[in-house]
Amino acid sequence: MKCTVxxxxxxxxxxxxxxxxxxxxxxxxxxxxxxxxxxxxxxxEPGDRVLVAVSGGxxxxxxxxxxxxxGYRADGLxxxxxxxxxxxxxxxxxxxxxxxxxxxxxxxDIRDDYGFDIPSGAKAARRVPCSACGLTKxxxxxxxxxxxxxxxxxxxxxLDDEAAVLFGxxxxxxxxxxxxxxxxxxxxxxxxxxxxxxxxxxxxxMAAYCLLRGIDxxxxxxPMADGNRHLRYKAVLNELELNTPGAKADFFFGFLARGAExxxxxxxxxxxxxxxxxxxxxxxxxxxxxxxxxxxxxxTQSTNATESxxxxxxxxxxxxxx
Length: 322
Ligand code: Q46
Ligand code: ZN
Ligand code: ZN
Description:
The strands form three sheets. The protein has a six-stranded mixed β-sheet with strand order 5-4-3-6-8-7, sandwiched between helices. Strands 1-2 form a two-stranded antiparallel ribbon. The chain is built from twelve helices and ten strands. It is α/β, with parallel strands linked by helices. The chain is globular and about 60 Å long. Bound molecules: Fe4 H S5 and zinc ion (2 copies).
């Protein structure tokens, strides 16, 4: 197998590009595809200060590395979600990455700062763990970006992630989600700009990128992802991609080019106010995150008061997101 560019031995075959790459040209492809997404969707301006949502996985650490390589000023934010060993290990990978490269990583531990963790907090608030987790992550990344004066929050969603989410949103016809499915969500109403610069790279490519760049990352999936419907959609799309290389990219980029406009929401119709407790933009008096915190910690307090067994994470908590 030879590199399509230089004819040296290739290490990866990317069928949707109908091309094979040696290490040097594969790394160049990853940089070029990231830069192309940033330009094509107007994600960032040169010299922007970016806050990378770091999970310790291949996508977020690879994204941080790529943004720095492309000349952006990028800091990381890691959230300790209290999901057992998974959180302990993913935090170690994020810290090691930042330490070895002298980067600025901020950490927020939701147990220390907000008094709950995702498994027990979700249970107490009667929410599916991934729903409580997503809400928590969105709120805390938004807040950190606004407080820190960053130009954007960047997340490591790749082509496989976006195609799977689109598949779910089309399968169940969620027009309100389709309206927001774009690599760029501009800043609005006190929310920071959010960008997804990896939408042109697949999961397999991000794993290969990290391997070649010497980036150690947590390989295990979050235990709460078990049974997650997006994993099932990914499996269906992988099957399709096997026989139709490029199907995922056609599906996702075709939607952006020809479908998304039909779901766009009229501008300026959000009537948001400030949360009475934390000041974040909110549709009601108290924002969803403050309500979650209240319910999650009220249960902890009453549990402590009655000295009954603490709420702990067990395998039974693994339910798919809604
Ligand atoms: S971390 Fe959180 Fe994911 Fe785990 S609980 Fe679900 S949303 S699966 S990206
Ligand atoms: Zn080459
Ligand atoms: Zn609030």
